[in-house]
Amino acid sequence: MWNQLQTDAYEGMLAETVTLPGYQGDRIHAYFSRPLGAGPYPGIILIPHMPGWDEICRETARRFTQHGYSVLCPNIYERFGHGTPEEVAMLARQAGGVSDDSVMGDVEGALEFLSTLPYANGRVGVIGMCSGGRHAFLAGCRVPGLDAVVDCWGGRVVMSAEELSDANPVAPIDLTNQLACPLLGLFGNDDRFPTPEQVNLHEAELIKHGKDYTFYRYDGAGHGFWYYQGEAYRPVQAMDAWQKTFEFFKKHLVDA
């Protein structure tokens, strides 16, 4: 758990850029961090958010690795070219966004990568923030073999008919009955994307289908309250949510 490291324990990690097969066999880049040691270690797929395959994603991967997880963050925006994260994210927006099928294919490739590591413990979870939170929930519904999902303030899980597109043809909430592993949801009550009302709809659908889920909703927090680089950061709420995430992954990826 957070800040419960033993002062006499060995600690080390390796973090690097790797390539792997993604959607339709495309070779994509991914940021990979793992503990140094024999393991076995559980895996986490970290789906990047719409700001891009960026520095925050890399720092988040290393934080999980410090706590004993092999983490793979695939560049789901690979097909739009290369540049700074902001430049590539803009290209993705101009193209109408990355398709759900493409992201799910990349998640399948990441799951295969993590599952076949010689020091893997055989369990893999997925987490995402913002649009990545939506993708994480979608992966829990569409990608077989995942053991836990964390959705951090994922917008557009609930979608109107007008919001559907060729890239996003189905609202994730409509696939709730297919969710095949436990779900943790973290939301700010001041968020407008998703709104508290949309989170209510999401929760009602999970209850309707008898899914294993836990939602935490934070007063005084809006969208992206983990992001320390901006005004949205709320340290108290963020650290409580981090603790809840560590506890959830430990239960389903380590102790299960």
Structure explained in plain terms:
The chain is α/β, with parallel strands linked by helices. The chain has one domain (13-254): Rossmann fold (3-Layer(aba) Sandwich), CATH 3.40.50. Helix content is 32%, strand content 22%. The protein has six helices and eight strands; from the N terminus they run βββαβααβαββαβα. Strands 1-2-4-3-5-6-7-8 form an eight-stranded mixed β-sheet, with helices on both faces.
Task: Please write out the topology.
Elements: E1 13-21, E2 27-35, E3 41-47, H1 55-66, E4 70-74, H2 85-94, H3 100-115, E5 120-129, H4 131-142, E6 148-152, E7 183-188, H5 196-208, E8 213-218, H6 235-254
Parallel strand pairs: 3-4, 3-5, 5-6, 6-7, 7-8
Antiparallel strand pairs: 1-2, 2-4
Helix pairs in contact: 3-4
Please state the average pLDDT score: 97
Could you name the ranges where pLDDT drops below 50 across 5 or more consecutive residues?
Answer: none
CATH superfamily membership, which one? Alpha/Beta hydrolase fold, catalytic domain
The total domain count is 1
**Coarse shape:** globular
Rg, Å, rounded: 17 Å
Distance between the termini: 16 Å
Pairing-aware structural class of the strands and helices?
alpha/beta
Strand order of the largest sheet: 1-2-4-3-5-6-7-8
In percent, how helical is the residue content?
A: 25-40%
CATH topology grouping: Rossmann fold
The SSE order reads: EEEHEHHEHEEHEH
CATH class: Alpha Beta
